[in-house]
Amino acid sequence: MNVTVIGAGLAGSECAWQLAQRGIQVELHEMKPEKMTPAHTTEYFAELCCSNSLRGAGLENAVGLLKEELRRLDSLILQCADATRVEAGGALAVDRHGFARLVTEKVRSHPNITVIPGEVTEIPEGEVIIASGPLTSDALAETLQGLLGEHSDLHFFDAAAPLVSAESVDMEHAWMGSRYDKGTDDYVNCPMNQEEYDAFWKELTTAQEAEVHGFEDSMVFEGCMPVEVMARRGHDTLLYGPLKSRGLDDPRTGRWPYAVVQLRRDNAEGSVYNLVGFQTHLKFPEQRRVFSMIPALRNAEFLRYGVMHRNTFLDSPRLLDRYYRLKKEPRIAFAGQMTGVEGYVESAASGFLVGVETARRLKGQPPVDFPREMAIGALALYISNESVTQFQPMNINFGIIPPLDHFVKGKRNKNAEISQRALAILEEKKADILA
Ligand code: FAD
Protein backbone atom coordinates (compact mmCIF):
# COMPACT_ATOMS: atom_id res chain seq x y z
CA MET A 1 0.00 0.00 0.00
CA ASN A 2 1.58 3.21 -1.23
CA VAL A 3 0.60 6.84 -0.85
CA THR A 4 2.25 9.87 -2.44
CA VAL A 5 2.34 13.03 -0.34
CA ILE A 6 3.31 16.28 -2.06
CA GLY A 7 4.94 18.89 0.20
CA ALA A 8 6.74 18.35 3.51
CA GLY A 9 5.33 21.37 5.35
CA LEU A 10 3.27 21.34 8.52
CA ALA A 11 0.46 19.33 6.93
CA GLY A 12 2.52 17.05 4.68
CA SER A 13 4.98 16.03 7.42
CA GLU A 14 2.16 15.24 9.86
CA CYS A 15 0.20 13.36 7.21
CA ALA A 16 3.19 11.28 6.05
CA TRP A 17 4.02 10.44 9.67
CA GLN A 18 0.48 9.26 10.51
CA LEU A 19 0.37 7.09 7.38
CA ALA A 20 3.80 5.63 8.08
CA GLN A 21 3.00 4.92 11.72
CA ARG A 22 0.05 2.86 10.46
CA GLY A 23 2.25 0.75 8.21
CA ILE A 24 1.63 2.54 4.91
CA GLN A 25 4.59 3.16 2.58
CA VAL A 26 4.86 6.88 1.84
CA GLU A 27 6.65 8.70 -0.96
CA LEU A 28 7.07 12.23 0.33
CA HIS A 29 7.97 14.80 -2.33
CA GLU A 30 9.55 18.10 -1.30
CA MET A 31 11.00 20.68 -3.67
CA LYS A 32 13.20 22.49 -1.11
CA PRO A 33 16.09 23.18 -1.21
CA GLU A 34 16.31 22.77 -5.01
CA LYS A 35 13.43 25.18 -5.38
CA MET A 36 12.34 27.56 -2.64
CA THR A 37 8.98 29.27 -2.18
CA PRO A 38 9.19 33.07 -1.77
CA ALA A 39 8.81 32.76 2.04
CA HIS A 40 10.81 29.64 2.93
CA THR A 41 14.55 29.95 3.48
CA THR A 42 15.82 26.59 4.82
CA GLU A 43 16.03 22.98 3.69
CA TYR A 44 14.00 21.80 6.70
CA PHE A 45 10.53 20.28 6.64
CA ALA A 46 7.69 22.03 8.57
CA GLU A 47 9.42 25.37 8.31
CA LEU A 48 7.56 28.19 10.09
CA CYS A 49 7.70 31.03 7.60
CA CYS A 50 6.54 33.85 9.88
CA SER A 51 5.81 33.80 13.61
CA ASN A 52 7.43 31.11 15.79
CA SER A 53 4.26 30.87 17.87
CA LEU A 54 1.69 28.08 17.61
CA ARG A 55 -0.60 30.46 19.55
CA GLY A 56 -2.50 30.02 22.85
CA ALA A 57 -1.79 27.01 25.00
CA GLY A 58 -4.75 27.13 27.43
CA LEU A 59 -7.92 25.04 27.03
CA GLU A 60 -10.10 28.16 27.24
CA ASN A 61 -9.10 29.00 23.70
CA ALA A 62 -9.89 26.90 20.67
CA VAL A 63 -6.38 26.55 19.30
CA GLY A 64 -5.31 25.34 22.76
CA LEU A 65 -7.94 22.60 22.47
CA LEU A 66 -6.83 21.71 18.94
CA LYS A 67 -3.25 21.34 20.15
CA GLU A 68 -4.29 19.21 23.12
CA GLU A 69 -6.29 16.88 20.84
CA LEU A 70 -3.29 16.48 18.53
CA ARG A 71 -0.94 15.98 21.47
CA ARG A 72 -3.09 13.18 22.91
CA LEU A 73 -3.30 11.52 19.50
CA ASP A 74 0.49 11.32 19.00
CA SER A 75 0.84 14.14 16.51
CA LEU A 76 4.39 14.53 15.20
CA ILE A 77 4.11 18.32 14.99
CA LEU A 78 2.96 18.66 18.61
CA GLN A 79 5.60 16.23 19.85
CA CYS A 80 8.34 18.29 18.15
CA ALA A 81 6.81 21.61 19.25
CA ASP A 82 6.70 20.51 22.89
CA ALA A 83 10.30 19.32 22.66
CA THR A 84 11.57 22.65 21.30
CA ARG A 85 9.34 25.01 23.24
CA VAL A 86 10.60 28.47 24.23
CA GLU A 87 8.97 30.58 26.96
CA ALA A 88 6.18 32.81 25.61
CA GLY A 89 3.68 33.47 28.40
CA GLY A 90 0.39 31.71 27.66
CA ALA A 91 1.39 30.68 24.13
CA LEU A 92 3.22 27.66 22.72
CA ALA A 93 6.19 29.16 20.87
CA VAL A 94 9.11 27.13 19.56
CA ASP A 95 12.74 27.46 18.61
CA ARG A 96 12.09 27.91 14.89
CA HIS A 97 15.09 26.00 13.53
CA GLY A 98 15.23 23.46 16.35
CA PHE A 99 11.59 22.57 15.69
CA ALA A 100 11.92 22.20 11.93
CA ARG A 101 15.20 20.27 12.28
CA LEU A 102 13.60 17.78 14.65
CA VAL A 103 10.57 17.22 12.37
CA THR A 104 12.97 16.68 9.45
CA GLU A 105 15.12 14.19 11.34
CA LYS A 106 12.12 12.17 12.47
CA VAL A 107 10.45 12.09 9.06
CA ARG A 108 13.66 11.26 7.21
CA SER A 109 14.50 8.41 9.57
CA HIS A 110 11.07 6.74 9.50
CA PRO A 111 11.49 3.35 7.78
CA ASN A 112 8.16 3.68 5.92
CA ILE A 113 8.86 7.12 4.46
CA THR A 114 10.94 7.69 1.33
CA VAL A 115 11.74 11.35 0.72
CA ILE A 116 11.90 12.25 -2.96
CA PRO A 117 13.53 15.60 -3.70
CA GLY A 118 12.28 17.93 -6.42
CA GLU A 119 9.27 19.85 -7.61
CA VAL A 120 6.11 17.94 -8.56
CA THR A 121 4.38 19.47 -11.56
CA GLU A 122 1.80 16.79 -12.46
CA ILE A 123 -0.50 14.80 -10.22
CA PRO A 124 0.87 11.26 -9.90
CA GLU A 125 -1.17 8.06 -10.34
CA GLY A 126 -2.61 6.24 -7.33
CA GLU A 127 -3.40 7.58 -3.87
CA VAL A 128 -2.20 11.17 -3.65
CA ILE A 129 -2.31 13.79 -0.91
CA ILE A 130 -1.55 17.33 -2.00
CA ALA A 131 -0.10 19.41 0.84
CA SER A 132 1.94 21.92 -1.12
CA GLY A 133 0.76 24.88 0.92
CA PRO A 134 -0.31 28.46 0.24
CA LEU A 135 2.84 29.02 -1.82
CA THR A 136 2.40 25.99 -4.09
CA SER A 137 4.82 26.24 -7.00
CA ASP A 138 3.45 27.87 -10.15
CA ALA A 139 3.63 24.73 -12.29
CA LEU A 140 1.68 22.61 -9.82
CA ALA A 141 -0.80 25.44 -9.20
CA GLU A 142 -1.47 25.52 -12.94
CA THR A 143 -2.05 21.75 -13.01
CA LEU A 144 -4.47 22.11 -10.08
CA GLN A 145 -6.30 24.91 -11.83
CA GLY A 146 -6.84 22.56 -14.77
CA LEU A 147 -8.16 19.84 -12.46
CA LEU A 148 -10.39 22.03 -10.29
CA GLY A 149 -11.43 24.81 -12.63
CA GLU A 150 -12.94 27.98 -11.16
CA HIS A 151 -12.99 26.55 -7.62
CA SER A 152 -9.22 26.88 -7.17
CA ASP A 153 -9.00 30.49 -8.15
CA LEU A 154 -9.26 32.07 -4.72
CA HIS A 155 -6.60 33.98 -2.90
CA PHE A 156 -5.71 36.45 -0.23
CA PHE A 157 -2.44 37.84 1.07
CA ASP A 158 -0.30 36.92 4.05
CA ALA A 159 2.59 38.87 5.49
CA ALA A 160 5.54 37.96 7.71
CA ALA A 161 7.17 40.08 10.44
CA PRO A 162 10.85 41.08 10.64
CA LEU A 163 13.46 39.52 12.94
CA VAL A 164 16.11 41.46 14.87
CA SER A 165 19.20 40.31 16.77
CA ALA A 166 18.80 40.43 20.56
CA GLU A 167 22.16 42.10 21.11
CA SER A 168 21.18 45.04 18.93
CA VAL A 169 18.11 45.93 21.06
CA ASP A 170 18.82 48.94 23.29
CA MET A 171 17.79 47.68 26.75
CA GLU A 172 18.18 51.22 28.15
CA HIS A 173 14.85 51.82 26.39
CA ALA A 174 13.23 48.40 26.98
CA TRP A 175 12.52 45.88 29.68
CA MET A 176 11.79 42.16 29.85
CA GLY A 177 8.49 40.80 31.17
CA SER A 178 5.02 39.56 30.30
CA ARG A 179 1.64 41.23 30.33
CA TYR A 180 0.22 41.30 33.87
CA ASP A 181 3.47 39.57 34.95
CA LYS A 182 2.20 36.21 33.67
CA GLY A 183 5.18 34.00 32.88
CA THR A 184 8.70 35.25 33.35
CA ASP A 185 10.90 37.29 31.07
CA ASP A 186 9.20 36.14 27.91
CA TYR A 187 9.02 39.38 25.95
CA VAL A 188 11.18 42.43 25.43
CA ASN A 189 8.89 45.43 25.83
CA CYS A 190 9.81 48.53 23.85
CA PRO A 191 7.82 51.56 25.08
CA MET A 192 6.99 54.77 23.25
CA ASN A 193 5.62 58.01 24.69
CA GLN A 194 2.87 59.90 22.88
CA GLU A 195 5.22 62.13 20.95
CA GLU A 196 7.31 59.17 19.77
CA TYR A 197 4.18 57.22 18.82
CA ASP A 198 2.68 60.15 16.88
CA ALA A 199 5.85 60.55 14.81
CA PHE A 200 6.09 56.77 14.27
CA TRP A 201 2.43 56.47 13.22
CA LYS A 202 2.79 59.34 10.72
CA GLU A 203 5.82 57.75 9.04
CA LEU A 204 4.34 54.24 9.12
CA THR A 205 1.15 55.30 7.37
CA THR A 206 3.00 57.13 4.60
CA ALA A 207 6.02 54.84 4.10
CA GLN A 208 6.61 53.23 0.70
CA GLU A 209 5.19 49.76 0.21
CA ALA A 210 6.80 47.06 -1.89
CA GLU A 211 4.88 46.16 -5.01
CA VAL A 212 2.90 42.96 -4.73
CA HIS A 213 1.16 42.00 -7.92
CA GLY A 214 -2.61 41.98 -7.51
CA PHE A 215 -2.53 43.37 -3.96
CA GLU A 216 -4.45 46.53 -4.89
CA ASP A 217 -7.72 44.65 -5.33
CA SER A 218 -7.04 41.95 -2.81
CA MET A 219 -8.36 40.49 0.37
CA VAL A 220 -6.08 40.68 3.39
CA PHE A 221 -6.50 38.06 6.07
CA GLU A 222 -7.19 39.91 9.36
CA GLY A 223 -4.93 37.60 11.38
CA CYS A 224 -1.92 38.47 9.26
CA MET A 225 -2.70 42.06 8.35
CA PRO A 226 0.32 44.23 7.59
CA VAL A 227 0.99 46.68 10.41
CA GLU A 228 0.94 49.64 8.00
CA VAL A 229 -2.51 48.62 6.68
CA MET A 230 -3.82 48.37 10.23
CA ALA A 231 -2.26 51.74 11.14
CA ARG A 232 -4.05 53.45 8.26
CA ARG A 233 -7.40 52.52 9.81
CA GLY A 234 -6.88 55.27 12.39
CA HIS A 235 -4.40 56.92 14.75
CA ASP A 236 -5.38 54.72 17.71
CA THR A 237 -5.96 51.37 15.97
CA LEU A 238 -2.51 50.00 16.83
CA LEU A 239 -2.95 51.15 20.44
CA TYR A 240 -5.82 48.68 20.73
CA GLY A 241 -3.92 46.05 18.73
CA PRO A 242 -0.26 45.00 18.67
CA LEU A 243 0.96 48.16 20.44
CA LYS A 244 -1.44 48.05 23.39
CA SER A 245 0.25 48.68 26.72
CA ARG A 246 -2.43 47.25 29.04
CA GLY A 247 -0.87 45.19 31.80
CA LEU A 248 2.69 46.22 30.94
CA ASP A 249 4.11 48.17 33.89
CA ASP A 250 7.26 50.01 32.87
CA PRO A 251 9.62 49.30 35.82
CA ARG A 252 11.08 52.82 35.53
CA THR A 253 7.72 54.57 36.02
CA GLY A 254 5.47 51.86 37.44
CA ARG A 255 2.91 52.86 34.78
CA TRP A 256 1.65 51.54 31.45
CA PRO A 257 3.41 53.49 28.68
CA TYR A 258 1.48 55.20 25.87
CA ALA A 259 2.40 52.39 23.45
CA VAL A 260 4.52 49.23 23.64
CA VAL A 261 6.05 47.17 20.85
CA GLN A 262 6.68 43.62 22.06
CA LEU A 263 9.52 41.44 20.83
CA ARG A 264 9.14 37.70 21.21
CA ARG A 265 12.04 35.29 21.54
CA ASP A 266 12.50 33.45 18.25
CA ASN A 267 15.05 30.79 19.22
CA ALA A 268 15.98 28.82 22.33
CA GLU A 269 19.19 30.78 22.89
CA GLY A 270 17.26 34.06 22.90
CA SER A 271 19.60 35.59 20.33
CA VAL A 272 16.85 36.39 17.81
CA TYR A 273 13.56 38.23 18.41
CA ASN A 274 10.54 38.89 16.20
CA LEU A 275 8.42 42.03 16.28
CA VAL A 276 5.01 40.81 17.44
CA GLY A 277 2.21 41.87 15.09
CA PHE A 278 4.61 43.64 12.72
CA GLN A 279 3.79 41.71 9.56
CA THR A 280 4.61 44.15 6.84
CA HIS A 281 5.12 44.68 3.15
CA LEU A 282 6.98 47.96 3.32
CA LYS A 283 10.10 48.21 1.18
CA PHE A 284 13.13 46.93 3.10
CA PRO A 285 14.87 50.33 3.55
CA GLU A 286 11.53 51.75 4.72
CA GLN A 287 11.20 48.97 7.32
CA ARG A 288 14.62 49.90 8.67
CA ARG A 289 13.84 53.64 8.64
CA VAL A 290 10.39 53.46 10.26
CA PHE A 291 10.91 50.62 12.75
CA SER A 292 14.18 52.24 13.91
CA MET A 293 12.03 55.13 15.19
CA ILE A 294 11.06 52.82 18.09
CA PRO A 295 13.61 53.99 20.71
CA ALA A 296 14.76 50.50 21.71
CA LEU A 297 15.26 49.58 18.03
CA ARG A 298 17.25 52.69 17.11
CA ASN A 299 20.31 50.58 16.21
CA ALA A 300 18.51 47.31 15.58
CA GLU A 301 20.15 44.78 13.30
CA PHE A 302 17.48 43.33 11.01
CA LEU A 303 18.22 39.64 10.42
CA ARG A 304 15.22 39.25 8.13
CA TYR A 305 12.81 41.82 6.78
CA GLY A 306 9.06 41.30 6.62
CA VAL A 307 7.59 40.05 3.33
CA MET A 308 4.15 39.60 1.82
CA HIS A 309 2.89 36.81 -0.40
CA ARG A 310 -0.10 35.67 -2.34
CA ASN A 311 -1.84 32.81 -0.60
CA THR A 312 -3.98 30.43 -2.62
CA PHE A 313 -6.76 28.26 -1.28
CA LEU A 314 -9.50 26.06 -2.72
CA ASP A 315 -13.24 26.60 -2.62
CA SER A 316 -13.34 23.53 -0.38
CA PRO A 317 -17.10 23.39 0.43
CA ARG A 318 -17.70 22.76 -3.26
CA LEU A 319 -14.75 20.42 -3.76
CA LEU A 320 -13.89 18.37 -0.69
CA ASP A 321 -15.66 15.91 1.61
CA ARG A 322 -15.19 15.75 5.38
CA TYR A 323 -12.00 13.71 4.92
CA TYR A 324 -10.54 16.48 2.72
CA ARG A 325 -10.92 14.16 -0.30
CA LEU A 326 -11.73 15.48 -3.73
CA LYS A 327 -15.40 14.55 -4.24
CA LYS A 328 -15.02 14.03 -7.97
CA GLU A 329 -11.83 11.97 -7.67
CA PRO A 330 -11.49 10.53 -4.13
CA ARG A 331 -8.04 9.02 -4.72
CA ILE A 332 -6.83 12.63 -4.39
CA ALA A 333 -7.00 14.42 -1.03
CA PHE A 334 -5.73 17.83 0.07
CA ALA A 335 -4.21 18.88 3.38
CA GLY A 336 -3.00 22.10 4.96
CA GLN A 337 -3.51 25.75 4.32
CA MET A 338 -4.57 25.28 0.70
CA THR A 339 -7.82 23.64 1.91
CA GLY A 340 -8.73 26.92 3.62
CA VAL A 341 -7.78 25.95 7.16
CA GLU A 342 -5.76 28.88 8.43
CA GLY A 343 -2.65 28.58 10.61
CA TYR A 344 0.20 26.27 11.50
CA VAL A 345 -1.74 24.09 13.95
CA GLU A 346 -4.83 23.96 11.76
CA SER A 347 -2.66 22.85 8.82
CA ALA A 348 -1.10 20.11 10.92
CA ALA A 349 -4.56 19.05 12.14
CA SER A 350 -5.86 18.62 8.61
CA GLY A 351 -2.75 16.62 7.69
CA PHE A 352 -3.33 14.46 10.75
CA LEU A 353 -6.95 13.68 9.81
CA VAL A 354 -6.12 12.95 6.18
CA GLY A 355 -3.26 10.65 7.23
CA VAL A 356 -5.38 8.71 9.72
CA GLU A 357 -8.41 8.35 7.46
CA THR A 358 -6.43 7.45 4.34
CA ALA A 359 -4.55 4.74 6.22
CA ARG A 360 -7.80 3.33 7.61
CA ARG A 361 -9.43 3.24 4.19
CA LEU A 362 -6.43 1.47 2.65
CA LYS A 363 -6.41 -1.04 5.47
CA GLY A 364 -10.15 -1.70 5.12
CA GLN A 365 -11.06 -0.08 8.46
CA PRO A 366 -14.19 2.10 8.77
CA PRO A 367 -13.64 5.89 9.02
CA VAL A 368 -13.32 7.44 12.49
CA ASP A 369 -15.82 10.25 11.89
CA PHE A 370 -14.23 12.94 14.02
CA PRO A 371 -17.32 14.74 15.38
CA ARG A 372 -18.07 18.47 15.36
CA GLU A 373 -17.57 18.57 19.15
CA MET A 374 -13.86 17.92 18.66
CA ALA A 375 -11.76 20.74 17.22
CA ILE A 376 -10.18 18.42 14.61
CA GLY A 377 -13.67 17.40 13.46
CA ALA A 378 -15.16 20.90 13.61
CA LEU A 379 -12.51 22.18 11.24
CA ALA A 380 -13.00 19.38 8.69
CA LEU A 381 -16.78 19.73 8.83
CA TYR A 382 -16.59 23.49 8.36
CA ILE A 383 -14.25 23.15 5.38
CA SER A 384 -16.62 20.69 3.68
CA ASN A 385 -19.90 22.40 4.61
CA GLU A 386 -21.67 23.12 1.32
CA SER A 387 -23.96 25.71 2.91
CA VAL A 388 -20.96 28.04 3.38
CA THR A 389 -21.24 30.14 0.23
CA GLN A 390 -18.62 32.88 0.76
CA PHE A 391 -15.79 30.59 1.81
CA GLN A 392 -12.88 32.26 3.63
CA PRO A 393 -9.82 30.74 5.34
CA MET A 394 -10.70 29.81 8.89
CA ASN A 395 -8.75 29.57 12.13
CA ILE A 396 -10.16 27.10 14.62
CA ASN A 397 -12.65 28.90 16.92
CA PHE A 398 -15.47 27.99 19.29
CA GLY A 399 -18.02 29.43 16.83
CA ILE A 400 -17.77 26.28 14.67
CA ILE A 401 -18.08 23.89 17.65
CA PRO A 402 -21.62 23.23 18.98
CA PRO A 403 -22.50 25.08 22.22
CA LEU A 404 -23.09 23.31 25.55
CA ASP A 405 -26.62 22.19 26.38
CA HIS A 406 -26.55 24.07 29.70
CA PHE A 407 -25.67 27.53 30.96
CA VAL A 408 -22.16 28.21 32.25
CA LYS A 409 -21.28 31.62 33.67
CA GLY A 410 -18.30 33.38 32.09
CA LYS A 411 -16.80 32.88 28.63
CA ARG A 412 -13.56 31.31 29.86
CA ASN A 413 -15.42 28.77 32.01
CA LYS A 414 -17.78 27.98 29.14
CA ASN A 415 -14.93 27.47 26.68
CA ALA A 416 -12.99 25.35 29.15
CA GLU A 417 -16.06 23.12 29.56
CA ILE A 418 -16.49 22.80 25.77
CA SER A 419 -12.85 21.68 25.68
CA GLN A 420 -13.41 19.13 28.44
CA ARG A 421 -16.36 17.73 26.49
CA ALA A 422 -14.17 17.39 23.38
CA LEU A 423 -11.40 15.66 25.30
CA ALA A 424 -13.86 13.22 26.90
CA ILE A 425 -15.09 12.23 23.40
CA LEU A 426 -11.49 11.92 22.26
CA GLU A 427 -10.63 9.59 25.13
CA GLU A 428 -13.53 7.31 24.12
CA LYS A 429 -12.29 7.16 20.52
CA LYS A 430 -8.57 7.24 21.20
CA ALA A 431 -7.80 3.52 21.08
CA ASP A 432 -9.67 3.20 17.77
CA ILE A 433 -7.96 6.26 16.24
CA LEU A 434 -4.51 5.05 17.24
CA ALA A 435 -5.17 1.48 16.05
P1 FAD B 1 3.71 24.72 4.01
O1 FAD B 1 4.14 24.67 5.41
O2 FAD B 1 3.99 25.95 3.20
O3 FAD B 1 4.32 23.46 3.28
C1 FAD B 1 4.19 23.22 1.90
C2 FAD B 1 5.45 22.56 1.39
O4 FAD B 1 5.24 22.15 0.04
C3 FAD B 1 6.65 23.49 1.37
O5 FAD B 1 7.73 22.89 2.06
C4 FAD B 1 6.95 23.68 -0.11
O6 FAD B 1 8.33 23.82 -0.37
C5 FAD B 1 6.39 22.42 -0.72
N1 FAD B 1 5.98 22.54 -2.14
C6 FAD B 1 5.26 23.54 -2.72
N2 FAD B 1 5.04 23.26 -4.02
C7 FAD B 1 5.63 22.06 -4.27
C8 FAD B 1 5.76 21.25 -5.43
N3 FAD B 1 5.22 21.60 -6.59
N4 FAD B 1 6.45 20.08 -5.33
C9 FAD B 1 7.02 19.69 -4.15
N5 FAD B 1 6.94 20.43 -3.02
C10 FAD B 1 6.24 21.60 -3.08
N6 FAD B 1 0.26 30.69 10.07
C11 FAD B 1 0.40 30.86 11.41
O7 FAD B 1 -0.20 30.12 12.20
N7 FAD B 1 1.20 31.86 11.90
C12 FAD B 1 1.90 32.69 11.09
O8 FAD B 1 2.62 33.56 11.56
C13 FAD B 1 1.78 32.53 9.67
N8 FAD B 1 2.45 33.34 8.82
C14 FAD B 1 2.39 33.12 7.48
C15 FAD B 1 3.16 33.95 6.63
C16 FAD B 1 3.14 33.73 5.25
C17 FAD B 1 3.98 34.59 4.35
C18 FAD B 1 2.31 32.70 4.72
C19 FAD B 1 2.26 32.46 3.24
C20 FAD B 1 1.53 31.92 5.56
C21 FAD B 1 1.55 32.11 6.94
N9 FAD B 1 0.79 31.34 7.82
C22 FAD B 1 0.92 31.50 9.19
C23 FAD B 1 -0.21 30.40 7.32
C24 FAD B 1 0.10 28.89 7.38
O9 FAD B 1 -0.09 28.45 8.68
C25 FAD B 1 1.46 28.50 6.90
O10 FAD B 1 1.57 28.84 5.56
C26 FAD B 1 1.70 26.98 7.06
O11 FAD B 1 3.06 26.71 6.82
C27 FAD B 1 0.83 26.14 6.13
O12 FAD B 1 1.18 24.78 6.23
P2 FAD B 1 1.12 23.83 4.94
O13 FAD B 1 1.64 22.52 5.37
O14 FAD B 1 -0.22 23.91 4.34
O15 FAD B 1 2.13 24.51 3.90
Query: How many beta-strand segments?
Result: 16
Q: What is the succession of H and E elements?
A: EHEEHHEEHEEHEEEEHHEEHEEHEHHH
Strand order of the largest sheet: 10-11-12-13-9-14
Contiguous uncertain segments of 5+ residues: none
CATH superfamily of the largest domain: FAD/NAD(P)-binding domain
Q: Separation of termini?
A: 17 Å
Indicate the proportion of strand residues: 15-25%
* Number of structural units classed as domains: 2
Bound molecules: flavin-adenine dinucleotide
* Secondary structure category: alpha/beta
CATH architecture of the largest domain: 3-Layer(bba) Sandwich
Tally of helical runs = 12
CATH class of the largest domain: Alpha Beta
Largest sheet descriptor: 6 strands, antiparallel
Helical proportion, percent range: 25-40%
In short:
The protein contains twelve helices and 16 strands.
Description:
It is globular, with a radius of gyration of 22 Å. A six-stranded antiparallel β-sheet has the order 10-11-12-13-9-14. Strands 6-2-1-7-16 form a five-stranded parallel β-sheet, covered by helices on one side. Strands 3-5-4 form a three-stranded antiparallel β-sheet. Helix 2 (62-72) packs parallel to helix 10 (344-362). The protein has 435 residues and is of the alpha/beta class. Helix content is 32%, strand content 16%. The chain folds into two domains: 2-156 and 312-433, FAD/NAD(P)-binding domain, CATH 3.50.50.60; 163-306, Elongation Factor Tu (Ef-tu), domain 3. The model has no long low-confidence stretch (mean pLDDT 92). Bound molecules: flavin-adenine dinucleotide. Flavin-adenine dinucleotide binds at residues 6-12, 29-32, 37, 39-40, 49-51, 119-120, 131-137, 140, 158, 160, 224, 309, 311, 336-338, 343-344, 347.
